[in-house]
Specification:
Elements: H1 3-6, H2 16-26, H3 28-47, E1 54-55, E2 58-59, H4 62-82, H5 87-90, H6 93-118, H7 130-159, H8 167-192, E3 199-200, E4 220-221, H9 223-230, H10 232-245, H11 250-276
Antiparallel strand pairs: 1-2, 3-4
Helix pairs in contact: 2-3, 2-4, 3-4, 3-6, 4-6, 6-7, 7-8, 8-9, 8-10, 8-11, 9-11, 10-11
């Protein structure tokens, strides 16, 4: 989206090819690693059709597939948000931090999850051996650095007056990125500190869970709040895009975006509270 696209009529089409080209040019490592992860997710999903082993009630390759998709989308989204930065901004230390920290930690997280899946073992909450415990700790550190890229990018965007998007679109992206860091890291940190894992009450299995995500339907599941928090960087900008399509004025859109961000944060906290109480929010 260029500034003109954000002020276009609802019937105008979005230049997806242009977005892809600009994202690739702005942050090639983010773009290509993210694209490769999405391609690998298709291969892993196919592999899961042949490898019938199960772990925690679902196929052993389900978790690597979800991590490949989630991390791939995260990297591509960072690249997209960077595509409206000036060339000078893209050469800053902060921009380099976003690119290389996200890429290196993202690859590490996905690779370890896939390795443990190939062994039919847990990657998270696994402290059965000294090596497993060490790797789990390293994954936690890596996850913090991975998500810190969103905060670094938010700071970079907030400081730039030459960002090539409308003021309310910029606000939504900055808010979404900050929320992803704060909510995602807070909920993720809380979840990882639970010795019993992400389930609270109910049947401790992913079998029969919510389709695709496998969240528990029989008890609380801390993964729900973590997922919503991590993806605030998508939900808030998507709301801003909807406001643009509806033709909202910049002043009204800004107020609506702040209100949406507050409501979304409340939703995340509510899902965490329900999970801690051992209640599933799913029928």
């Amino acid at each position: 989206m260029t500034t003109s696209e954000l002020n276009q009529s609802p019937r105008a089409s979005i230049d997806w090819r242009g977005h892809i080209a600009r994202s690739r040019a702005a942050a090639p490592p983010l773009f290509w690693v993210g694209a490769v992860m999405l391609a690998l997710s298709v291969m892993v999903a196919t592999l899961g059709q042949f490898d019938v082993r199960q772990f925690q009630g679902v196929g052993v390759w389900v978790k690597p597939w979800k991590f490949l998709v989630s991390t791939g989308v995260y990297l591509l989204t960072l690249a997209l948000f960077m595509s409206w930065l000036s060339r000078a901004a893209l050469r800053t230390r902060t921009a380099n931090y976003v690119v290389w920290v996200a890429v290196t930690t993202g690859v590490f997280e996905v690779a370890y999850v896939a390795l443990k899946a190939s062994q039919g073992a847990a990657s998270h909450f696994n402290i059965s051996t000294r090596l497993d415990a060490t790797m789990y700790s390293l994954m936690g550190v890596g996850a913090v650095f991975l998500i810190s890229a969103s905060l670094a990018l938010a700071v970079l965007l907030a400081r730039r007056s030459d960002y090539a998007l409308s003021p309310h679109a910029k606000l939504a992206i900055v808010l979404g990125l900050i929320m992803t860091f704060v909510l995602g890291s807070t909920f993720g940190g809380y979840m990882s500190a639970q010795a019993a894992g992400h389930w609270v009450g109910g049947v401790r299995t992913d079998a029969g869970g919510v389709p695709v995500m496998n969240w528990s339907r029989t008890g609380g599941d801390l993964r729900v709040a973590h997922f919503l928090g991590v993806h605030a960087m998508h939900f808030v900008p998507a709301f801003a895009l909807l406001l643009t399509i509806l033709g909202a004025s910049t002043a009204w859109a800004k107020r609506a975006i702040w209100a949406f961000a507050a409501l979304f944060t409340a939703l995340c906290i509510w899902t965490l509270a329900e999970a801690r109480a051992g209640r599933s929010i799913w029928p």
